[in-house]
């Protein structure tokens, strides 16, 4: 999600589902346009893939559910807060806080991240507006960095995204800095789900690394057709193995990447990563637009689950 730019132009191609033993790359121009199903366009190619679910017999290694009473903040043993503004490398227009108003349980089983419109001269938020003249909303961003780390396995979350131009919810991962890298993008980024509030019939799924970041990221799209992902909860998942990464929405395969297809020397996904949840506003991702008539927007997280995948998966608790 961070420090990168995406084009707002993408091509929607709709085809009948095709079950293939391997993902096939087919030039878009050679495919007929038909009436149904799941397709992902990227770099002039259409990726067609079978529906897949987690294999039976895998072990649940870590979960998060949010069944506490309303107003409960996140577990400090698991999550820490990013606090502040500065655009976050993307010209974003929110100030992240650790306030329960911006992130807490709703008493109905979900964690809610709220973007709340800042009111000029409001004594409760003048500390934000006095410091950040470009901030239009307060919001929240939490991460498991230095608390819980993950390496390989299957990570999923059931999330409801908000609708509204400029809203930018994300469920993603960053690589832990190590001897072979010192930050973004050299340590890697896995965007399990991002959504543009201006078009919530589409979700965005990306990989970033040393030779493929920002506008050159390995980015693919899931198309919900006539449905809006903001109308209901959906499950977003990444299946991560030493030599491959696959993204899913509601158990439908969006795209698969392999170490071979990206280039072995640029594959930085053989180390520990940490999770991030946030709701940004404005910025480059949604074309720089922001509907400032929105008074409040909510990203809801029902649960997060981490399991083994083909016997691989390691959770580290610090």
Give the overall silhouette: globular
Helix/strand structural class: mainly beta
Straight-line distance between termini: 25 Å
Give the number of helices: 2
Look at the structure and give the CATH class. Answer: Mainly Beta
Q: Give the total of domains.
A: 1
SSE ordering: EEEEEEEEHEEEEEEEEEEEHEEE
Beta-strand residue fraction? 35-45%
Rg, rounded, reads 19 Å
Largest sheet: 10 strands, mixed
The appropriate CATH architecture is Sandwich
Helix content: under 10%
- Within the CATH hierarchy, at the fold level, what is the topology? Jelly Rolls
Residue runs with pLDDT of under 50 for 5 or more positions: 3-53
The tally of strands reads: 22
Average of the residue pLDDT scores: 85
Please tell me about this protein's structure.
This protein has one domain (53-317): Jelly Rolls. Helix content is 3%, strand content 39%. It is built from 2 helices and 22 strands. β2 (40-42) and β3 form a beta hairpin. Mean pLDDT is 85; it is low at 3-53.
Summarize the model shown.
By secondary structure, this protein is an all-beta fold.
Helices and strands in order:
Blueprint: E1 24-27, E2 40-42, E3 45-48, E4 60-65, E5 80-81, E6 94-96, E7 103-105, E8 111-117, H1 126-129, E9 137-139, E10 141-143, E11 148-151, E12 153-160, E13 167-175, E14 189-195, E15 202-208, E16 218-223, E17 234-241, E18 244-249, E19 252-258, H2 259-262, E20 273-281, E21 296-307, E22 314-317
Parallel strand pairs: 6-9
Antiparallel strand pairs: 1-3, 2-3, 4-21, 5-10, 7-8, 8-9, 8-21, 10-20, 11-22, 12-17, 12-21, 13-14, 13-20, 14-15, 15-16, 17-18, 18-19
């Amino acid at each position: 999600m961070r420090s990168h730019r995406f084009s707002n132009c993408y091509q929607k191609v709709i085809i009948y589902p095709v079950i293939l033993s391997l993902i096939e790359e087919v030039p878009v121009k050679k495919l007929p346009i038909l009436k149904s199903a799941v397709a992902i366009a990227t770099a002039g190619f259409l990726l067609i893939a079978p529906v897949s679910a987690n294999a039976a017999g895998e072990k649940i290694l870590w979960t998060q559910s949010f069944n506490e009473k309303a107003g409960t903040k996140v577990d400090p043993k698991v999550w820490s807060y990013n606090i502040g503004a500065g655009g976050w490398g993307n010209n974003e227009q929110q100030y992240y806080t650790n306030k329960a108003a911006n992130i807490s349980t709703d008493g109905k089983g979900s964690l809610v991240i709220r973007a709340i419109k800042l009111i000029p001269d409001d004594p409760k938020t003048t500390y934000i507006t006095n410091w950040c003249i470009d901030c239009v909303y307060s919001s929240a961003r939490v991460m498991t960095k230095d608390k819980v780390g993950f390496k390989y396995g299957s990570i999923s979350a059931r999330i409801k995204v908000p609708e509204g131009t400029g809203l930018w919810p994300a469920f993603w991962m960053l690589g832990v800095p190590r001897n072979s890298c010192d930050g973004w993008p050299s340590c890697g980024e896995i965007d399990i789900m991002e959504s543009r509030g201006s078009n919530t019939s589409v979700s965005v799924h990306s990989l970033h690394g040393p030779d493929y970041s920002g506008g050159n990221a390995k980015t693919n799209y899931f198309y919900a057709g006539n449905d809006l992902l903001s109308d209901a909860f959906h499950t977003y998942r990444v299946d991560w193995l030493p030599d491959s990464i696959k993204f899913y929405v509601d158990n439908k395969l969006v795209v698969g990447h392999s170490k071979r297809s990206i280039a072995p020397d640029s594959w930085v996904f053989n180390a520990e990563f940490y999770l991030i949840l946030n709701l940004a506003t404005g910025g480059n991702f949604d074309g720089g637009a922001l509907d400032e008539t929105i008074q409040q927007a909510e990203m809801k997280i029902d649960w997060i689950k981490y399991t083994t995948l083909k016997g691989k998966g390691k959770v580290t608790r610090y």
